[in-house]
Amino acid sequence: MPKRPSVVSHVPALRRAVRNLRRGGATVALVPTMGALHDGHISLVRLAKRRARRVIVSVFVNPAQFAPNEDFASYPRNLKQDIAMLADAGVDLVWAPDSKTMYPPGFATRIAPEGPAKAGLEDAFRPHFFGGVATVVAKLLTQCTPDVAIFGEKDYQQLKVITRLAADLDLPVKIVGAPIVREKSGLAMSSRNAYLSDTQRAAAATLYRVLKDCAGRIADKELIARVLDEGTAEIERAGFTLDYLEARHADSLAKVETIKDGPLRLLVAARIGATRLIDNVAVP
């Protein structure tokens, strides 16, 4: 039976636990999550174990990144199941604070990121989101003091925002992006996939198929605007309401016109039923 990781929920206990993990000069990796763990999260843990001797996973559903009309109350939560998965994965420590620990009475400091956080992608539809992400990630990085922190590439704009945050604030941590893990259909694994009906899940595979097709056509030097217009139509025919399908510079997230403006990344966000999905691929 795998060893159960230590689970702490208050900052003093966390700091003691991190000191113990670092005994003998051990390096530490952090994998921040909002729980409802799946194989995509466990792939982040596996990468963390390759990058450091000890691994911390945080489990915290961050209210600061949800707008009032979003799914904070219904977001899937199952800490007991999460801990069992993390035990199987060989995690050393689980940091599982509650909202009052992360945002105690009188909490009054928030980070307002710019740069990639103002690219006109997720921020155009969720203007509250990256302020909440930047604030909680800054807290997690200062609380856990990891040498390396692992973030999935599915949330690609978020990865760029956090990379910029760590650099701008001189945080002594290496931010590492991990490849997207997909279901057999190609659908990117996400905790929100649990909201999908069987019919919606089948249709949702269209996102990845269209992204791959568009990326291949752009790599073959077809006109980006035409490719994306046709991709948009195909996504909408599958039953989605599209927020965006964009080609951007893979590092800056700046808008591009031709493949010569690259390296390029294609990013999509769309709703099917009540569920909003995001995905992205590199243009080869």
Describe the structure.
There is one protein chain. The protein contains ten helices and nine strands. It is α/β, with parallel strands linked by helices and 284 residues long. The protein folds into two domains: 6-178, HUPs (Rossmann fold); 191-278, Pantoate-beta-alanine ligase, C-terminal domain (Pantoate--beta-alanine Ligase, Chain: A,domain 2, 2-Layer Sandwich). Strands 1-4-3-2-5-6 form a six-stranded parallel sheet, sandwiched between helices. Strands 7-8-9 form a three-stranded antiparallel sheet, with helices on one face. Strand 5 (148-152), helix 7 (156-168) and strand 6 (174-178) form a beta-alpha-beta unit.
Write a short abstract of this structure.
With 284 residues, this protein is α/β, with parallel strands linked by helices. It is built from ten helices and nine strands.
The spatial strand order of the largest sheet comes to 1-4-3-2-5-6
Count the domains. Answer: 2
**Number of DSSP strand runs:** 9
Q: Which architecture of the largest domain would the CATH scheme give at its second level? A: 3-Layer(aba) Sandwich
Mean model confidence by pLDDT: 97
| Spatial separation of the terminal alpha carbons | 43 Å
Low-confidence stretches: none
H/E order of the elements?
A: EHEHEHEHHHEHEHHHEEE
CATH classification, class level of the largest domain: Alpha Beta
Biggest sheet details: 6 strands, parallel
Instruction: Give the overall shape.
Output: globular
Fraction of helical residues: 25-40%
Percent strand equals 15-25%
Q: Which structural class do you get from the secondary structure elements?
A: alpha/beta
**The CATH superfamily title of the largest domain:** HUPs
